[in-house]
Please model this.
Amino acid sequence: MNFTKTTSYSLHVLAYMARHENKIMSASYLHRQLDIPYSYLRSVLLDLSRKGLIMGVKGRNGGFCLGREKKDIYLSEIVNATEGIDVLNKCIMGYEKCPFDNVCIFHSAWTRMRDEILDILENTTLADHLNSTDISKSNINQ
Amino acid sequence: MNFTKTTSYSLHVLAYMARHENKIMSASYLHRQLDIPYSYLRSVLLDLSRKGLIMGVKGRNGGFCLGREKKDIYLSEIVNATEGIDVLNKCIMGYEKCPFDNVCIFHSAWTRMRDEILDILENTTLADHLNSTDISKSNINQ
DNA sequence: TTAAATTGCTATGCCTGGGTAGCAATTATG
DNA sequence: CATAATTGCTACCCAGGCATAGCAATTTAA
Model:
């Protein structure tokens, strides 16, 4: 009923990096800032680095920064790099194809959400996301 | 992003039993009808039986039937018997509490769906479900 | 009475997501 | 130069969902 933690961690990290562009951040720093288990964060960062979403800088004072400009990284790419966006194509009953032939009572609620989420993922860059959450942060009604 | 297969199997089985009330069905029969792996179906049925949702009848010609009348079994009970309805209380990012303080861009799409699904689960009995899918089946627009 | 079909129950295995740990290579700092 | 801090990489562990297999007990049918 949700994204994997790996996806969540990745979105966290990349959103944080977008908010502090051009700053190189080490795994231990990100660990302290984002409260993600250090060792696992290491492996997530390695993976994102291999996939080009971030760039690793070795050596003392090394760390990671965005692999591209924040306006050029779409959220869908991040999900694709972790669990793959295909999760959204499985019906809520866990099958590729709805076992109730799309007439199950959850279907409309489910597809509506899926379409909205897909739309967000495919049309939001890290830069957009930054703006949208900034607006939200200034809204008391949370 | 979806219910576990165990939940899906359970909903399948119970919906099928509701559609053929008062008939005793063996695991191997249900396996053939619903295309659920036999051995795993056995363990699912055992579990549902222990939890009172179905009743086992031993011996040759034995099998299972609904543990209560179909109008008295709510879908929420079934989900609770398998993975627990709490899955719906985790945010889409996989946490108990949304790590973005409820301002993440998926939040409204997600909560809307969750509320709808919860409403369906808590207010639909197997009997209701039967009617709703019957209506849908007669609808060409699928 | 014997065999077949069934549930009740338990032990086991596989896979994946999540997580840990350590070593080599690299780089900056004292 | 020596040491500290870092990434790159690999091996490993654990839990849970999914799945299989087999044995005992029960009941029916031949």
Remarks:
- Residues 26-28, 42-43, 45-46, 49-50, 56-64 of chain B lie near DNA strand C (CB under 10 Å from a C1').
- The beta strands of chain B are 54-57, 63-66.
- The radius of gyration of chain B is 17 Å.
